[in-house]
Each structure stands twice: as structure tokens, then as C-alpha cells.
Amino acid sequence: MQYGVDQTRFFLMSENNFGSDGDFSHEKMVQKCNTNLANELGNLCQRTLTLVFKNCDKATPAEIGPFTDEDEALLAKARELRHICGEAISTQAIQKYISALISMIWDANKYIDTMEPWVLRKTDPERMTTVLYVIMEVLRYSAIMYQPLIPDSANKILDLLTVPENERTFDHLTDDFKIKLGSPITKPVGIFPRLEMAEAVVA
Asked: Domain with 168 in it: what CATH number?
């Protein structure tokens, strides 16, 4: 497939109302996938796990500190995803489902830019590991919720996060199944290659 199955699924479900006709263009497809998947979700996953891999002995943080109000606020929004997305699905409002996930990842990107774990690496290593762990948990919640939309890509993210294959359903969206401390991780790889118009229009 020209753009990839997951990218095509994501675009069609995010840009078109369920049961209605919709418009398609190469420009919109490339912009949507690059913005929401490559730049926001993919980049957040890549830079977070790269910092974890390099600074936490190639494993999820072995120790973390207490959560701040900012940490708790972001985690609370992640925990609310199941409820918000569940309501959207009950009314077949798939665009609302996707918008909630996009908003979650946008907030997580804002959080990492504000917390600057790459600076904390030198000034406060414990705080760095806490920030990285919070983002990993947000990615766990988000990737599980993304599975119906982009199953292959979402499961690749869950693989990178060391989430067991039998803990990837909506029933596992609780703190009882949070990412285990000190779990070895593999070197992170990019999940969403950026699309280029020059390549996209080639038949």
C-alpha cells in the first residue's frame, strides 16, 4: 500500500465522519500522518525511549521519585482516556475518539518539553527517571487505546515499552498493570517514517 496500512486507516478514520463520504488528497494525507503520527506520537516515543535506553542502563527506570502535581495531572488524563474514548465509540464518533488520543499526545509532548529530562540528567537524575517513567505510562495507555486504529504500529510501541502481550487490552488500563521498573528494553527504533510528497505521488 502506498502510504502504509496503519497510516491509511488513521487518515480515513480521523478525517471522515462515520457513514459519510469524505475528501481525500495526497497533501492532506501526508500532512496528517506526518503531524500526528511521525512528529507527535512517533517522535515522543523515540526521544523518550532513547533517553531511557542511554541513561537508565538500557532498561525502564529502576527507581523513580514521588510524583509532582504536573505528573499526576498528566497521568490522570491518561487514565480518563478509556472513559472518553468509550463514550465516543458508543455513539460511533470515531473522530472524537482519535481527537482524545491526539490531545493526550500533544499534552505529553508539552510535558516533556517543559520538564526537559535531558537537562535533569545532569542536575537531578531521580527527577529525570520519574519524568521518563510518567511519559512511558502515558504512551502505554495511548498505545493500547490506539490499537483498534493502528494495530501494527501501536503494538510496536507496546513492544518497545516492554508491555507483555497478554496485558494489552482495555481491561489493563489501570495502575495494576503499569510498566515494571527495571525491565530491559531494546534500542528504540522509529515507528512512523515521514512521508514525502515527491514519493507519495508516485504510482
From this structure: 1.10.730.10
